[in-house]
Structures are given as structure tokens and as C-alpha cells.
Amino acid sequence: MSTTIPGPPGSPGGLVTFGPHANCTLDLCPIEYSVYKYRPSVPANAIFVALFGVSIVGHVILGIRWRQWNFMALMIVGCLVEIGGYAGRLILYNNPFSFGGFMDQIVLITTGPVFYTAGIYITLSKTINYLAPEVSRIKPELLYWIFIPVDIICLILQAAGGAISVVSSGSSSTGVDIAMAGLGLQVGGLFFFSALFVDYLIRYVRKKPESPLTTRMRIFFGFLGAAILLIFTHHHG
């Protein structure tokens, strides 16, 4: 939806504040007319770009060392998507009325975690196979055969929703509804996965008292749980 405000004295017609045809700038329009009504922080968003960039390097090194090609690929793609999203935030600092910058950050930042959750599903599946697959209520392989397709559907819905919003210039709520459906499905899938994750840990501790989790494994599961929690807070942020 393109929003128009009266232009300055002597200007032809009005100024478009939002949409693919937005022509407002900070020189012509007050910041209050922009989508967020403020300029995103350059230091904060630059830090996120840098952190995701460093993460890519780390995942490349560890992925090659341990030959975890699928996990490495998912993490790299996720980081690249997030970098693109925060780059969109930096664009909004220079021009808070940039429709391209707005769509970049809203679509990419919300879809990036799809790749992280896929990596988490694969990681837990391999961990269960390593520890005690017989303790799990479902076959470990089913974790990614069930949840990764759900992630793919979420990605398609969010991408389609973003595309519809761009094509309609925001005039239709259909794109937003589709994207939110994808986001909701992703959160629901992650919640169900988290329940299975906790259930497995409880069952393992009860059924394998002779093989307690090592300190290293406890730390691993702690960070895995923290990653899931951060993805939840990312979606609700």
C-alpha cells in the first residue's frame, strides 16, 4: 500500500512514504512518516552482520574438519540470509522510506532461522543415534524426515507472502497472512520438536542410569536448548 502525503510548497503532487514507488527521503519527509518512525541503529546492525560473518568462517572451518557438509551448508545459508536481512536494516538507516530495504529485512531476518532449525533437527537425530536410539519414542531419522519438510513449507509460505506483499505494494493483507501462517507453522513445529527433545532427555536419564551424560554432553545439550530458545525469542521479538 503506497501512502502519500502532501509535498513541500511548490512540489508537484504528493510524496509517497511507503511502497515500491516511495519517493520520500529524510530531506523531504519527517521520520515519523516512515514505517518504523525511527532510524535503525548502525552499530547494532553492523555488529549482527559481523557476528554472522564470523559464524560463517567458524562453520566452514568446523564443517570441513568434521566433514559435516549438510550441517555446514545449512548454517552458512542461514548466516547469509541473516546478513542480507540486517543489511536491509542498514539501508533503512540511510533511507527509512526505502521499500526495498524494508522488504529485505522483514523477509530475510524472519526466514533465516528456518535453516538453523533444520540443522538442529539433524544434530539431535545424530546425537540420539550416538547415545541410545532405543530410548527415543520415534526413530531418530524421522526427526528430520518430519520436521525438515515442515521447515521447507514454512520457507515457501514466508517467501510467497513476501513476494505477494511486494507485488501488491502492501495493499493486500494476503501476503502478510501467508507469511504469518508460515511463521506460525515454524514456531509450532519447533515447539513440538522441543517437547520431543525434552522427552528424550528425561527418558534417557531414567532408562540409562548406568550411562550418565558426560559434562561435555550436558554442555552440548545446554547450548542446543539455548539455540532453540533464542529462535523462539527471535520470532517473538
TrEMBL record:
It is a multi-pass membrane protein. It is found in: Membrane. One of its GO terms (cellular component) is plasma membrane. The chain crosses the membrane at residues 42-64, 71-93, 105-122, 142-166, 178-198, 219-236. The keyword Glycosyltransferase does not apply. Keywords: Membrane, Transmembrane, Transmembrane helix. The keyword Lyase does not apply. Signal peptide: none annotated. The lineage of its organism: Eukaryota, Fungi, Dikarya, Ascomycota, Pezizomycotina. InterPro entries: RTA1 (IPR007568). This is Efflux pump himE. It comes from the Eukaryota.
